[in-house]
Amino acid sequence: MSTDFLVSDPLPTVTPVASTPAVTFTSGGETLLGVLHVPAGPGPHPIAVLLHGFPGNERNFDLAQALRRAGYAALVFHYRGSWGVGGSWSWRNVLDDAARVAAAVREREFCSTHRLDPGKVAVVGHSLGGFAALMAAAADAAVGAVVSVAGFDFGAAASLSRADPAQRSAYVEDWDGELLPLRGTSGEALVAEMEAAGQAWSLARLAPRLADRPVLLIGTGRDPVTPAELHHRPLVAAYRAHPVGRLEDRVFPTDHALSDHRLELARTIVDFIGRHLRTSS
Length: 281
Known about the structure:
This protein is of the alpha/beta class. It has an 8-stranded mixed β-sheet with strand order 1-2-4-3-5-6-7-8, with helices on both faces. The chain is built from 11 helices and 8 strands.
């Protein structure tokens, strides 16, 4: 696949032209705010739903733009209780919102309005969003491909938290420090919710439901938030053992936000999605 999507814009003579409409979705009685990056051309365009992490300082708009240049519609949105959206923040609400939006982008009116292909949907998530992406794909067979970038494995973290009081306190302290853009929660509440879910939120347990799906797991080698030894390598091993037949994995030597590997990250994701959800225009 060409990497021209990284350096060149589509010709202005292509119609319909590219656009970036604000869009909304309803989940749990609240209105979620999103931005859809629609490519030029008649489509119908495959769709990539981008799921940001906790609290969402890195929203991956660069990936959305790269995906659009490659011919994919790319959606970025906020979960309940975050960045001005109504409702309360919780891990459960994130999972429900991710599942709702992944279904909503396939609805007939939404696809007709924005020239989208409801049969070609990928879910791409970072950190908490990587967890949510894998959970959403496992629960929804219509998701055609899934990418987790520095995904946070809540099942593994719950086990560690229960076994090590110092680690539990560190989670509470760290999460308390990220609450400014959020509403309706606390570090203690979030740790308690994670521990209550326990192994129900283990990503390894999703292997049977992802066995026939293209899955890309990207780990980070200099990352204290989701260290590969806890959140990436055991998951890769579990998926290979099942096996998840179309699993691909990479570890980039970078930090949690992949700060100095954004172009390589974009190339990797666009190439992966391109091999499984080819554009039709």
